[in-house]
Amino acid sequence: MTLEALKNLAKIGKIKAEPMNQAEIDRMLDMARKRLQDANVTELSQEGRFSSTYNAIHVAALAALRWHGYRSENRYLVFQSLDHTLGWPASKWRVLDAAHQKRNLAEYEGFLEIEESTIKELKQLAMSSLLMWKN
Questions:
Q1: Domains assigned to the chain
Q2: Are 56 and 39 in contact, with CB atoms under 8 Å apart?
Q3: Global pTM?
Q4: N or C: which end of the chain has fewer CB within 10 A?
Q5: Are 102 and 112 in contact (CB under 8 A)?
Q6: Which residues have CB under 8 Å from 95's CB, separation 6+?
Q7: pLDDT tens digits for 15-45?
């Protein structure tokens, strides 16, 4: 992990340095687990499962950034920082970038075209990020 990259992002104002708060991180991880459980409810619409899965991985990624003592309001940077916070290769966080773009289309234009394979892949990434915590 390149923590120097996080320091550089803070220097240029892309993320904010903020003391790590374990209680906040624990709440975030609990929320991520609950969202992931919601994503497994087959009675939910495909859109609902996608949204739950996307939110699970986002809050887990944010928890990783917070654990390192940083915060970001920019979802893209939270995902991109996974390279530095969890040691994820670009191939993993780019899947999240694609999901982020789909989420934005849904939120801002009311259009969401999603496949089950995308939801499955996001669930696997969310589970992988949560397993790293071993809480």
A1: 3-131 (1.20.120.330)
A2: yes
A3: 0.90
A4: C
A5: yes
A6: 121, 122, 125
A7: 999 999 999 999 999 999 999 999 999 999 9
